[in-house]
Amino acid sequence: MKELALYKNLIKRYLFYLLIFSCVFGLTNLILNRSPLFPLLHSISYYLYGYTIVLVSLNYYLFRLSISSGISRNRLYKLKLYLLSTITVIINIFMFSINLFSYILNNKQIDSIYMNLYFGFFNNIIINFISMFIVGFISILFIMILFNTFGTLLSLLNPLGKFITFVVVYAMTHICFISFSIYYFVFGFKNINLQPTFNLITGLNASTTGDGNSGNPINIAITLILLILILSITNYKLTKMNQIRK
Predict the structure, then answer these.
(1) pTM above the 0.85 mark?
(2) Residues 74, 79, 81, 84: is their CA dihedral positive or negative?
(3) Over the stretch 173-232, which tens digit does the pLDDT of each residue have?
(4) Which residue in 216, 225, 174, 178 sits closest to 198, CA to CA?
(5) CA-to-CA distance for 18 and 94, rounded, in angstroms?
(6) Quick one: DSSP state of residue 55?
(7) Cα dist. 91→19, 110, 182 in Å?
């Protein structure tokens, strides 16, 4: 099938790019900076994550390949979901393995957001790690679909439209972060109206990092799944549209 052949071709291409990037980045830091093993692996995983996000955002290339291969927009959308899911599994296994071995061999010292906020919610350490793997997969898939959807939107526009859209999204993102920071420093998440909503969405509370309590990872997982569904529908609608720049 054309879709399967294109899928295999793209996966091999993406993995080759990621392998080259990891080798160059890892050898450079190992030789020049002489970084310790675990910090080096963590750095590679984070930069690899970021580089992968850039790759999955380049959608105009996918549109051109699908047109040249005679693949419909509906099939292209399914192909993108398979690609994003496969890449997410690979990245998640890589990052989870590093965190697991770091936890076992590095005296439980891990530079992980999940470890700081959610690890320990369950009484069993194995269940905690299983939850960490599942939430990690959902989180990475959310980021992949988010940036792929943004890349799909940009691929539909001409250069001026790309520039305007990018500036608007960039400005809105910074405004949201600034508003969040102002609210945090002024009110400290003690607003009786917003605090329950924040707790429900994230599974966190004001005492999560203060007294050693762990947030509920189930809440954030459900929130991200709902966002993934919304983004998937948006991505589908955008994928079926035609680009202005041919």
Answers:
(1) no
(2) negative
(3) 777 777 666 655 555 555 556 677 777 788 876 555 444 557 889 999 999 999 999 999
(4) 216
(5) 12
(6) H
(7) 12, 17, 34
